[in-house]
Amino acid sequence: MSFMKLKVISTLLTVINFINNNNKSGQWWQTLHRTMLRGVLGKTFRLVGYTIQYGCIAHCAFEYIGGVVMCSGPSMEPTIQNSDIVFAENLSRHFYGIQRGDIVIAKSPSDPKSNICKRVIGLEGDKILTNSSSDFFKSHSYVPMGHVWLEGDNLQNSTDSRYYGPIPYGLIRGRIFFKIWPLSDFGFLRGSPNGHRFSDD
Amino acid sequence: MALSQGWVRRYFKAFCKGFFVAVPVAVTFLDRVACVARVEGASMQPSLNPGGSQSSDVVLLNHWKVRNFEVQRGDIVSLVSPKNPEQKIIKRVIALEGDIVKTMGHKNRYVKVPRGHIWVEGDHHGHSFDSNTFGPVSLGLLHAHATHILWPPARWQKLESVLPPERLPVQSEEE
């Protein structure tokens, strides 16, 4: 599942600030007449300064606190439908508070530029049933140290740890906990429909 | 009294303003452009920490260079350890995706590095916790590219991107 961060916000804020400042310092033609070159230069520097400042604030917010993301793809149905908008928080990743059953955003292990959105089925040391398709060949595997086991809620249509194995904890970007769009589904996310996939111990 | 209160208030205000500019800018700079880190352990001898335990080098980590996850064979990079997410490790890139490497002590004699992964090894074979133990690592764990040694001053130098000839990939992607 891929998603987009709304980094446009920082640019917008900068523009608003710029307009406000413009109004405060008198009529625009007066400003222009007074010190044309200095004014323009000052404005440019101020604009660059505000851009850097808000850009940095946006980076810190998206990196350490969380943000709004748009999910796409069918692998998390029915919990998250295609093109739903959700809140993600990054604090639990920094404090190592990811638990079984949490829905997380992680970097794809085969392509670091794209992101995936899956549910954590097992933490390190858990015993995982790797193929549930038949009762005859039940094979278990243990999640190694520092890794997590991720699976989509839509088991039939999801490329997840059953395909590429456990992924390192360091790839996790954030935890999704709140859905804001569509409005009919507004609220905290539901539990996993595949409860039997969780390990017993 | 009123004057001094006003002064305190103004000072506090200016401090807050500066604080809210400086902290995000500094954090972003350290996250996105470059930072420095102390290297611990003997796994990269003789390139780093040649003196053993009594000296530890401080290296410059360039984040900007790896923003698109582009690394070359021979680069010294820092990664989030796949076994322990709280730890960063510093290793040399031996092979990129698609290469076939001859391993040293891994369970398979030859390994093809999968898509989006790299093979990393310490220069000090046998004393390094690297891909020979945990296999190829995902590029998403890449943290930074170590470009210079900054401390101690006598060892100030650029870290060259050299691949030991005996560690060349058996078969590389381009061929």
From TrEMBL, chain A:
<comment type="function">
    <text>Catalyzes the removal of transit peptides required for the targeting of proteins from the mitochondrial matrix, across the inner membrane, into the inter-membrane space. Known to process the nuclear encoded protein DIABLO.</text>
</comment>
<keyword id="KW-0472">Membrane</keyword>
<dbReference type="InterPro" id="IPR019533">
    <property type="entry name" value="Peptidase_S26"/>
</dbReference>
<keyword id="KW-0645">Protease</keyword>
<dbReference type="Pfam" id="PF10502">
    <property type="entry name" value="Peptidase_S26"/>
</dbReference>
<dbReference type="GO" id="GO:0006627">
    <property type="term" value="P:protein processing involved in protein targeting to mitochondrion"/>
</dbReference>
<comment type="subunit">
    <text>Heterodimer of 2 subunits, IMMPL1 and IMMPL2.</text>
</comment>
<dbReference type="InterPro" id="IPR036286">
    <property type="entry name" value="LexA/Signal_pep-like_sf"/>
</dbReference>
<keyword id="KW-0496">Mitochondrion</keyword>
<keyword id="KW-0378">Hydrolase</keyword>
<dbReference type="InterPro" id="IPR052064">
    <property type="entry name" value="Mito_IMP1_subunit"/>
</dbReference>
<comment type="similarity">
    <text>Belongs to the peptidase S26 family. IMP1 subfamily.</text>
</comment>
<keyword id="KW-0999">Mitochondrion inner membrane</keyword>
<dbReference type="GO" id="GO:0042720">
    <property type="term" value="C:mitochondrial inner membrane peptidase complex"/>
</dbReference>
<protein>
    <recommendedName>
        <fullName>Mitochondrial inner membrane protease subunit</fullName>
        <ecNumber>3.4.21.-</ecNumber>
    </recommendedName>
</protein>
<dbReference type="InterPro" id="IPR000223">
    <property type="entry name" value="Pept_S26A_signal_pept_1"/>
</dbReference>
<dbReference type="GO" id="GO:0006465">
    <property type="term" value="P:signal peptide processing"/>
</dbReference>
<dbReference type="GO" id="GO:0004252">
    <property type="term" value="F:serine-type endopeptidase activity"/>
</dbReference>
TrEMBL record, chain B:
<keyword id="KW-0645">Protease</keyword>
<dbReference type="InterPro" id="IPR000223">
    <property type="entry name" value="Pept_S26A_signal_pept_1"/>
</dbReference>
<dbReference type="GO" id="GO:0006627">
    <property type="term" value="P:protein processing involved in protein targeting to mitochondrion"/>
</dbReference>
<feature type="domain" description="Peptidase S26">
    <location>
        <begin position="15"/>
        <end position="104"/>
    </location>
</feature>
<keyword id="KW-0472">Membrane</keyword>
<dbReference type="InterPro" id="IPR019533">
    <property type="entry name" value="Peptidase_S26"/>
</dbReference>
<feature type="active site">
    <location>
        <position position="91"/>
    </location>
</feature>
<keyword id="KW-0999">Mitochondrion inner membrane</keyword>
<dbReference type="InterPro" id="IPR019758">
    <property type="entry name" value="Pept_S26A_signal_pept_1_CS"/>
</dbReference>
<comment type="similarity">
    <text>Belongs to the peptidase S26 family. IMP2 subfamily.</text>
</comment>
<keyword id="KW-1133">Transmembrane helix</keyword>
<keyword id="KW-0812">Transmembrane</keyword>
<keyword id="KW-0378">Hydrolase</keyword>
<comment type="subunit">
    <text>Heterodimer of 2 subunits, IMMPL1 and IMMPL2.</text>
</comment>
<comment type="function">
    <text>Catalyzes the removal of transit peptides required for the targeting of proteins from the mitochondrial matrix, across the inner membrane, into the inter-membrane space. Known to process the nuclear encoded protein DIABLO.</text>
</comment>
<keyword id="KW-0496">Mitochondrion</keyword>
<dbReference type="InterPro" id="IPR036286">
    <property type="entry name" value="LexA/Signal_pep-like_sf"/>
</dbReference>
<dbReference type="GO" id="GO:0004252">
    <property type="term" value="F:serine-type endopeptidase activity"/>
</dbReference>
<dbReference type="InterPro" id="IPR037730">
    <property type="entry name" value="IMP2"/>
</dbReference>
<protein>
    <recommendedName>
        <fullName>Mitochondrial inner membrane protease subunit</fullName>
        <ecNumber>3.4.21.-</ecNumber>
    </recommendedName>
</protein>
<dbReference type="GO" id="GO:0042720">
    <property type="term" value="C:mitochondrial inner membrane peptidase complex"/>
</dbReference>
<dbReference type="GO" id="GO:0006465">
    <property type="term" value="P:signal peptide processing"/>
</dbReference>
